Amino acid sequence: MRTLRMFLFLTALTAIGAVSVALALGATPTSPVATTSPATGMTDTGVTLHGTVNPEGQQTDYAFQWGPTTGYGHETALASAGDGSTASSVGATLASLSPGSTNHFRVIAMNASGTSVGSDQTFATTGTAPAPSTPPAASTGAASSVGQASVTLNGTINPSGQATTYYFEFGTTTNYGIETAPVSAGAGTSNVAAIGGLRGLTASTTYHFRLVAVSAGGTALGADQTVQTTTPPAVSTGGASLVGAYSAVFNATVNPEKQATAYYFQFGTTTAYGLQSRPVSVGSGSESVAVHHAVTGLVANTTYHYRVVAESPGGASYGGDRTMKTTGPAQIPSRVRVLGRMGFVSRGGWIGVVIGCFGGQTHCSGHFALTQGKTVIGQRNFSLSSASGGFQNVRLSSRAQNVFGKSYHGPALVELTLVSSTGQRISQALHLARWR
Asked: Can you list the domains of the chain with their CATH numbers?
């Protein structure tokens, strides 16, 4: 079986390749045509399946679905049928089947325009069927951790005392067409959890899925369930307004797509940005809303890059990069310095960090954060006049207050990261000590 990654790769190739060519030529892309043909070469444990696939001019994949009922539950590895426009013969050989068993099968074909299935046919292996044993039980659960490109599938399996494997079938219709990798469910007699993670999905798309359990006792199919991947906000970065020597207003539009959404602007002297405004709620409506942010502490006669960012449970969206240039004569930019290697923690849950602004004609402004490992324990924006400096007091995060509570004596080592509005970056170790 090809992996999900391969399937998504082929789907992407189809979407940007064959579809684009067809549209350029004035043609309307269509789904493939799949036809199931009779099986041949039946033995006690094997058979050869046959069919035809017409890709209708687009890169197309095919597989054979088979199983003891018209619910199927098994699928051969995805294979390429090419991108021709005539029907070609396809086939697959099955092995390790049960003797004396009757199975249903059909061919399924997929391209960027859709999925097609051939008619149902049956085949029967030769030989004597083994004594019947208890099949597993499978129950499809609800999906969880739903994102715009990923989801976790859930269910329960009862192996009924026989070695059992499970996988999830999924696709945009109840024909499915894709399977996760098989996972062992053991050989117990009680329910066990079944979990399958999907990645690389398409946002705002409904997917069907079901759980399949397989053992020597047979194949169990869970009920069909659906999940819709989330829709991220829609954003567009607008032009800047009220541009002065030290300030400007950034503008944009944000559509929350019916989910609680917050937006902010990233900005800086390069496309690495480094600075950002505080997040602001824009509600949970379904229409585009005009948003803006007034930024100060900029440097005169300097070009800035900026863009809007919006985040919701549906994901994060980034507006396009825009630039604007502040007015006024060119100035010698001041440099930011972190004074000393020590910060001070108060009993009220504040950190004092000493920052100075020296050596130029401009204000010093920007943002700094204190981290332990990957956890931010405090952060804030700052703004200083040239040739000045002093304590910048940062409120501790709730986690940091637990660490630096009343019983804390220190010192503790943290990382300070600072980005100024002129693009200056500072990263250094800082020892935190109790302010007594």
From this structure: 4-130 (2.60.40.10), 234-325 (2.60.40.10), 335-434 (2.60.40.1930)
